[in-house]
Amino acid sequence: MLSIVCPICGDPRSRVFFVKAERTLLECHGCRHIFWDVFPRPDELAAYYAKVYTSQKSQQALQEQNRAYYRTHLQELLVLCGRKAPAEVTLMDYGCSVPVLLEEAAQLGFRRAIGVDYAEGETAVEMIPPEGVGGLPDQSVDVVRFSHTLEHIPDPLNTLRTLLPKMRRGALLYVTQPSFPVFATAAAGFDLKDSVYPEHLHFFSPISLVKLAREAGFKVTRLFTHQREKAIFDETRSLLDLDYARAELLNLRDKGDPNFPELANYPYYCGENSVLHAVRPGSWFF
Ligand SMILES: [Zn+2]
């Protein structure tokens, strides 16, 4: 057992999960979050992403392919946030990269569509850097979306805590990202999918993802996983700590998605990606 504090739940107990060539993956005893033994310095991270951003062109092509899906997805977000018309909704896409989703939101008539990222050149939609979020008016945002973003951020808890007061009461936090099942702390480790430093800094378990949202002040209303759940279950079966998952996530047992198989939901959560919905507590109706 090591004494490195978990960046999500603050548990001081962690253990070596897997040793890579230059770095080591650690696992938190409390929330089964997996993270690197050393986090990148801000300048190291900035230099890394400056290089990545030179491949913006492929990102543009990737995002363009998603236009049709984005239109459906925006309708889903509208329903989930409880608003009737796009004109009532301010949407934030955190870590949006090339903001194709937000272009579609503007087309559909959303009141305001804000991208949070380091923008390159002119964009058709409003973009702010992560440091700019604190400057937004309080209680002004209805939906915040993180799609494959939180795992890149060194301190996601601080990011969500900064966001919470900017969101209206009852506003929706929508998160989708890579997910790893709840592993036993005594089990042998193995290399994780896409454990590329310093791009992926956090490897969330369903427990650590829920703790993150709750620690930041959100109420979780849905949690499930999807993709390859049967294969992941077969591959990791002997490493799973289902009793712990059952106990820790008991109050989310009815908050899954019955459209997905049992192995994607409580207590297995074996899908490769997770989907979490949460709200800022309090209602905007009254
Ligand atoms: Zn933890």
Report on this structure.
This protein has 286 residues and is an alpha/beta fold. It has a single domain, classed as Vaccinia Virus protein VP39 (Rossmann fold), CATH 3.40.50. The protein is built from eight helices and eleven strands. The chain has helices at 42-52, 56-64, 67-80, 100-108, 156-163, 206-215, 229-236, 242-248, and strands at 14-19, 24-28, 34-36, 90-94, 112-116, 126-128, 141-147, 167-178, 202-203, 219-226, 273-279. The strands form two sheets. The chain has a seven-stranded mixed sheet, sandwiched between helices. It has a four-stranded antiparallel sheet with strand order 1-2-3-9, with no helix packed on it. Helix 4 links the parallel strand 4 and strand 5. Helix 3 (67-80) packs across helix 4 (100-108). The model has no long low-confidence stretch (mean pLDDT 93). It binds zinc ion.
**CATH-assigned fold name:** Rossmann fold
Report the average pLDDT across residues: 93
Ends distance: 49 Å
CATH superfamily: Vaccinia Virus protein VP39
Total number of strands: 11
Q: Major beta sheet, specifics? A: 7 strands, mixed
Write a short abstract of this structure.
The protein has 286 residues and is of the alpha/beta class.
Question: What layout of secondary structure does this protein have?
Answer:
Layout: E1 14-19, E2 24-28, E3 34-36, H1 42-52, H2 56-64, H3 67-80, E4 90-94, H4 100-108, E5 112-116, E6 126-128, E7 141-147, H5 156-163, E8 167-178, E9 202-203, H6 206-215, E10 219-226, H7 229-236, H8 242-248, E11 273-279
Parallel strand pairs: 4-5, 4-7, 5-6, 7-8
Antiparallel strand pairs: 1-2, 2-3, 3-9, 8-11, 10-11
The chain binds zinc ion.
